[in-house]
Design brief:
Blueprint lengths: L1 H17 L8 H24 L3 H5 L7 E2 L6 E2 L1 H22 L6 E14 L2 E12 L9 E13 L4
Antiparallel strand pairs: 1-2, 3-4, 4-5
Amino acid sequence: MKKVLAGVFALLSVALLGYRPEARGNDMRDEAHDRAQIEKPMWQYVRAPDTENADAYAATYTPDGQFGIGANVVKGQDALKKMISDLRQRAAETEGKTGQKSAPMYHMFLNSELVFPDKDHAHMEAYWMTVFGQAGPNVAVRVAAAGREVDEIVRVNG
């Protein structure tokens, strides 16, 4: 049995030594580069609502991009900017009425999977959470929402 395992290990080692990613062309390097290029706007996508940055949020979408589905869809960059601006306005109104700042908001992606069906498209699925931080000594952190994220990512202008 030891000889069989040693033989399998030796065969696997030789196979791995013969494997060269560059033999596939630049596919692996391109995918690694694309993953890095996707991570930055995805961070901006989750961070912009937390900082109430409407322009940064809308910039993560294509001109016809949309948030949500069905009757609650927000479509197009102008409408997406307005969605975040409205969030900012509601927070300011609440602060004006109560005298208290809103709890900090945090959007998160969890357990994401990113696949590349072709060189110009990616598909990402993840779980997400919206969490409000502590808003004072007697106000606990709370999970406001959670769900499943499905994103179709498209290379635009290179």
